[in-house]
Structure formats: C-alpha cells, structure tokens
Automatic annotation (TrEMBL):
InterPro entries: Glutathione-S-Trfase_C-like, Glutathione-S-Trfase_C_sf, Glutathione_S-Trfase, Glutathione_S-Trfase_N, GST_C, Thioredoxin-like_sf. It is an enzyme of class 2 (transferase). Residues 87-203 form the GST C-terminal domain. The keyword Transferase applies. It comes from the Bacteria. This is Glutathione S-transferase domain protein. Keywords: Transferase. Its EC number is 2.5.1.18. It comes from Methylobacterium oryzae CBMB20. Residues 3-85 form the GST N-terminal domain. SUPFAM superfamilies: GST C-terminal domain-like, Thioredoxin-like. GO terms for molecular function: glutathione transferase activity.
C-alpha cells in the first residue's frame, strides 16, 4: 500500500483513533481528515456520498474504495501482521473480544462518556444502565487481564487496540479505574506497544 489512504474521523472518538493507531503502527501511509461529528460533519451531502450510514470512521483506499466500521477497517489494515494471530482459535479469540467491544463495552462506556463530555448532561439524568453495564464490562476485563498480559493471550492483538481506545478514556464517562489494577497495567502495555503514549485528555 504505497499510495496513502484517507481516514475520515473525529479526533475525540476512540473508534476513529484505533484506525489511526493501526495505520501508524504498521507504517501504512495515511492522511487524516477531521470530521466534526457533534457539528453535523457526518450529515453533509459530501460525507453521505462516501458513507450513507453517516458514521465515522471511514477510510477511502487509494483506488477509491470506501470501508466503514472501525473494527472491520483495522482487520483489513492489519491483515498479515502480528496484530492478527495466524492460528484459527487465537484469531477467533481476538474477534470474540472485538465483537464484544462493540456490543457490550462501547455502547455503555463510550456512550456515557459522550453524554457527559460532549452533551454536558448531568450524571443523574443518564440511564443508570450505562453505568451498571459499563462497570460489568470493566469487571470482566479485569478478571481476564489478571490471568494474561493481553485480552486474547500473551501477545497484543487487534482486540487490545479495539478495547484500549475507550477504556483509557473511561474516567471521562464516570468510571473510576483506580480499583482496576490489571486494566491500568494493560493500558500501559498497549500504549507502549502501539507507541501512542498515555492519554492526554479529551479532544
């Protein structure tokens, strides 16, 4: 992939950042285009022509093909790399966590963060299930990471990339990570492995 691909994303979105991180980690040339999601940037005719679903991130490949959905994009970018296990079962374990991230983690931790940080809603006005189920997700991760260095085993995979994005921002959604020592150690390992450094705060 010699010609650069174009990533359309919001710099405050973990889903968008994971695409940026994988491209940079693997040395894939990429151009980043900011999309102001709260400001309606995904609803313009120009953006909807690229992704009728009106969501970021998307990538436009050098040949003009468009790919959406963050986890699908990073699987495409990382194909053949060490971020995707070669053996069938470890690869399936990686995908298991990636599917879980979009179904049981992001809808609670990321959504609560968005409502508190971007929409400036008061915690007492939020659906209590966001806090309850987000805490359930963190407890499951903590138990898993107490037994292995990374989510799908002893090597970093896309599962870790997918899940570190919003986990390291979880405090902005009202989730205190102080009691999750295994998660905090894992965040550091993944940040070091990707070369992204510690989280410096919201965009």
């Amino acid at each position: 992939m010699s010609e650069p691909l174009t990533i359309y994303g919001d710099p405050g979105s973990g889903n968008c950042l994971k695409v940026k991180w994988v491209a940079a980690h693997l040395g894939i040339p990429a151009v980043w285009r900011d999309v102001d999601v709260p400001g309606g940037g995904t609803r313009t005719p120009e953006f909807l022509a690229l992704n009728p679903a009106g969501r970021v991130p998307i990538v436009v490949l050098p040949d003009g093909a468009v790919l959406s959905e963050s986890n699908a994009i990073i699987v495409y970018l990382a194909e053949g790399s060490a971020l995707i296990p070669e053996a069938a079962l470890p690869r399936a374990r990686m995908l298991q966590w990636m599917f879980w991230e979009q179904y049981s983690h992001e809808p609670y931790i990321a959504v609560r963060r968005y409502q508190l940080h971007y929409l400036k809603r008061a915690p007492e006005d939020l659906d209590p299930k966001l806090a309850e189920r987000g805490a359930d997700a963190l407890r499951l991760m903590e138990r898993t990471l107490a037994c292995s260095a990374f989510l799908a085993g002893e090597a970093m995979t896309l599962a870790d990339v997918a899940l570190v994005a919003y986990t390291r921002m979880a405090h902005e959604g009202g989730f205190d990570l102080a009691g999750y020592g295994a998660i905090r150690a894992w965040i550091g390992r993944v940040e070091d492995g990707l070369g992204i450094g510690p989280y410096a705060g919201p965009a």
